[in-house]
Protein: Alkaline phosphatase
Organism: Amycolatopsis vancoresmycina DSM 44592
Amino acid sequence: MTAHSRRTLLKAGLTGASAVAAGLVVPSTAFAAVPLVRRDRPVLTHGVQSGDVTPGSAIVWSRADRPSRLVVEIARDPSFRHARRVPGPVVGPDSGGTGRV
């Protein structure tokens, strides 16, 4: 464990106080969060699972809180730079909220 000098602690305290003061000066609208979930859209109640992935297909499971269309985005790279949307079926209570693309 390293020993902290008085100077190191004072610098850290001043840095923290400056950050707090800057937060008080900047209007709160500058940091307003963009809502990720809209109330009119279905919500995935059980997350997303995948399995049986092959070079040409995969199985994707999810469940929504209301009848909705299953849409899957696929890409060849992890950054999803050139992603493709694949529309699936409308799923609801009759299918257990699950579908196959």
